[in-house]
Amino acid sequence: MKIVAVHSVKGGVGKTTTATNLAAAAARDDSRVLLWDLDPQAGATWLLGADGDPTPSSANPKDLRKGKKGAQRPPVREVVIGEGEARRAVVATEHGFDVLPADASNRHLEVALAAAKRTRKRLAEAVSPLAKHYDLVVLDSPPSSSALAASVIRAADLVVLPVPPAGLALRSVEQVRMLLEESKHPPALLAFLTMVDRRKAEHREAVAELPRSIPEMADVVVPSSVAVERMGTQRAPVFAVAPRSPAALAYLRVWDVARLRLAPQVRSKYH
């Protein structure tokens, strides 16, 4: 099992959109995929319809699927600090992958981690038992440089950073680099441009210049797109909304590059 964390220190960059579409793209390769929504805003949870009474995943214990007493899903806070079993919180989506949804306890994860031992290792320890059930876990990380972000990075094999073509693009990459450097075993970093409107001169300049000035940036551009906007109204990944749109094809390319930057055994699985 490999872990991809979608992370940025800044909000509003398309992080949740990226995490959702990466999970969907990987699932199209017949991989067993879990998306874990760690963001207190619960965007991925809402987008995938897991904010109500979702269908338990096949990864869940039998007693949970049967609804036995005492088998309710544990809060995310308990899962992160090691007091709850991650797979008992997992639910299915109709898009070929599972989700570990956010709940009210996501708002208190920082406090819970601060009080726990081995803070940086907590998330890695919580995810580890899922290796029997999934080939890939995608973490939708909250936008911050906090203790939770450090734990996310410690768990990840690859950090994916969506970068809007704005003046602070270089700064956002540098901030994530600094977080990675704090880890004893830093994961690889993959940045890519998103929300690009080629009608704007500044965006065209960013597409031409940033991949040459940022070594971690892939030559992949996700356009500003009505198809991506429709994800919110239809509550589905872009592949369900507009599977042949330029945005859908771009996210498939992002996943292709991410897959190639993971370990060789992952690449061999898909080819």
Automatic annotation (TrEMBL):
Record InterPro entries: AAA_dom, DNA_Partitioning_ATPase, P-loop_NTPase
Signal peptide: none
Occurrences of domain AAA (ranges): 1-179
Origin superkingdom: Bacteria
Annotated segments matching region Disordered: 47-74
Pfam families in the record: AAA_31
Protein name: Cellulose biosynthesis protein BcsQ
